[in-house]
Structures
1.
Amino acid sequence: MKILMLNGINLNMFGKRDPKQYGTITLDQINEQVVKLGQELGAQVAHFQTNFEGDMAERIHQALADEVDAVLINAGAWTHYSYGIRDALSILKCPIYEVHMSNIHAREVFRHHSVIADIARGQICGFGVDSYLLALRAAVSAHQAAQVQTAQA
C-alpha cells in the first residue's frame, strides 16, 4: 500500500509555532512516527511539505500518476479557502483523509469551515500527532477491507 502524507503552509514550523495549539513536536518527528507506523502496518508512506500552493497542486497531480492508495493531508490554512488544492485533490481516485493537529472546530470561526471536508473520507482533528497516526490506521484499515471485499467478489 502506498500512502502520501501532505503538509501545507506553515506546517514546517511545527515545534516553533504556537506550542499551546500544536505542542513542541516537529514535522520531522511527525514524519518519522508516521513512516514507522506505516512500516508496522505494511504501508509505504511518502511525505511532502510546501509553503507554495502551486507546488502542492503539482505534488497532488503526481500522486495520481503514482497511483497512491490514500492521501493524508493537513493543508494548514489552505484547508479553509484553497479551492485550488481542493480541486487538485478531487482529481484523485483514492480516499483522502483530512488531518489537523488542533481541533479546528474549537478555534477561530474562520477555521471551522473546510473546503476539503466534502471530498474527504474523513476528518481527524484535535489529537496532536495522534491525528496523523489515527488517519494512517484508518487508511490502512479501509484499504484492507476493500481488498477483502474484492477477493470475495
2.
Amino acid sequence: MIRRGLFARTFAVGVLLAISSMAGDSGFGFIASVEAKTVVIQRTTIYITTLPKGCVKTTYSGGIVVWQCGTKYYQPYKNRYVLVYIK
C-alpha cells in the first residue's frame, strides 16, 4: 500500500514533468526547469500540547505541515506537537 504523502509527491512530479515536456516544442515555455527540494524532518522525543504565540504554519511538498516558532519547528502528532529538526 502506498502512503498518501508518497502518492501525492509522485503525482505532483508526474504532472510537472508532463507540463515541462509540453513546454519544450509547443510554445508554452513557462517552465524553464523543474527543481525539487528534498526536506528531511527528524523528530525528537520532546512533545508539547499547545504552540507558543506567534508560530507560523508552513506546508512542504507532499503535504508535510510544520509550525515555525522562532528558531524551533514543531509538527502535529497525535493531538499534540513534536519538536522536529529540518535538514
